[in-house]
């Protein structure tokens, strides 16, 4: 141990003297102590959840209720643009969205309505599009995580499909519009079939056939699809439903995307949302946890004759949210204490 | 319990090796993991790029006779000329096309989405929806922030008394600070989420210590 560290004592940064006042010491607390406390506290919460209650924000209700309003044969485009490194932040949003869509789809399919006339009862049509280089890894993880909750009547190729990643997603958006989907996607990820061979996609010929477009590519989607929209979305609660405004129904439904952003992006995304250029908006793990809460109170996994109605056991986002609340409270408490220490130092003339 | 799973063990050990920087600073372990991370990311991207090159460019060219794909492929190949001092200037062509197309696509919708629609919606907020307080804050904030950036004359100094215009720019600066503060706070939140995610990999996925949750 160096002389400076010996003088400071173990807990403090070099240069701190043992007889320094508390407000100096608190600012010079060794960052390793701070981080160790965070690691231990967060680990405890991850193992033993606090289950801090959260209220479901309007952002989540808006999209959840919109998906509830969809009908057999309606098409949902779900793309993934962020890299896998951020999956903890928005993973719960995607797992909740996929679960919700498939549960709703299963219920609609059970009605037995064949909307497009191909002889197969229609639920919702979920199209998964990886737009980042590791997007398909993320989708596979989310599918694996949620599949046990899907209804039994959900079939790959009929009700959902995943297409492989292609480079330069920004340009591909324009290509969809100019050339059609079947020219861009020729082999699906799991079975190698073409766009027009699969019942889930063969009736989707242009962006205008998409009813809900969910993505996360910052501003590009909003900018490109906005060119095809007519009236910006009004986010008033009474206008959530499918046919309430032009951005929420064909032929302009695809023009306004639901955007999934990470926690760091809310300040950037809000102007687009308030301007009506997003049909909906999810903000990081917080909204992911809230969506899980909404699902938990509105859905059951399936009717199992042996078990009865088994409630959906959600918690990835909520548990992460618990840990984040704790870590964030600790971080901001330390920031406040540090600022108080700085204020004292200024009063004592130790800093200018 | 997945402690025996070699992949999860490797992932968890790599995460902890990354965190070793906090306690031990730069070390052989940290350097090795950092290099491994970059190398595997590049390798994965390279394989994906190669697959795309085959499926989008090469296969249609040789099987369907769509020979026009040769142009972007040559242009793409020219990007590698940067490694040569003699031929490095050739990479300017594909670079300029990439930038030009990007700018063109972006600019076409930028004015509509980022300027016109956001201005109109800010204005409508109060006048159409009756949210007068929000409308006032947005309009004043927008105008004064704009003023802060364009009013680039000395605000104070020897012999200069701050004027009302200086004060207005100061208020604009306060709005900018509020934005930056909000961005900073949400970035802290985001970073903490990344950290929590890594802890979940170790505790939940590798060690199997997890509460009974689904999804």
Encode the helix/strand succession of chain B as letters. HHHHHH
Beta-strand residue fraction of chain A: 5-15%
The H-and-E topology of chain A, N to C, reads as: HHHHEHEHEHHEHEHEHEEH
In terms of DSSP E residues, the strand content of chain B is under 5%
The average pLDDT value of chain B, as a whole number, equals 85
**What portion of residues of chain A is helical?**
40-55%
- Outline type of chain B: extended
Biggest chain contact: A-B, 75 and 54 residues
Number of strands of chain A: 8
What integer value in Å does the Rg of chain B equal? Answer: 27 Å
Quick one: biggest sheet of chain A? 6 strands, parallel
Task: Offer a quick outline of the entry.
With 352 residues, chain A is of the alpha/beta class. Chain A has helices at 3-8, 22-27, 31-47, 58-68, 87-109, 135-146, 169-179, 181-184, 220-226, 266-274, 284-298, 316-347; strands spanning 75-80, 125-130, 160-162, 212-215, 258-261, 280-283, 300-304, 308-311. Helices cover 43% and strands 10% of the residues of chain A.
Kindly describe this structure:
The complex is a heterodimer of chains A (352) and B (215). Chain A folds into two domains: 3-48 and 317-347, no CATH class; 58-314, no CATH class. In chain A, helix 4 (58-68) crosses helix 11 (284-298), helix 5 runs parallel beside helix 11 (284-298) and helix 5 (87-109) runs antiparallel to helix 12 (316-347). Chain A is an alpha/beta fold and 352 residues long. Chain A is built from twelve helices and eight strands. Chain A has helices at residues 3-8, 22-27, 31-47, 58-68, 87-109, 135-146, 169-179, 181-184, 220-226, 266-274, 284-298, 316-347; strands spanning 75-80, 125-130, 160-162, 212-215, 258-261, 280-283, 300-304, 308-311. Chain A is elongated. Helices cover 76% and strands 0% of the residues of chain B. Chain B contains six helices and no strands. The two termini of chain B are 18 Å apart. The mean pLDDT of chain B is 85. At the A-B interface, helix 3, helix 5, helix 7, helix 9 and helix 10 of A face helix 2, helix 4 and helix 6 of B.
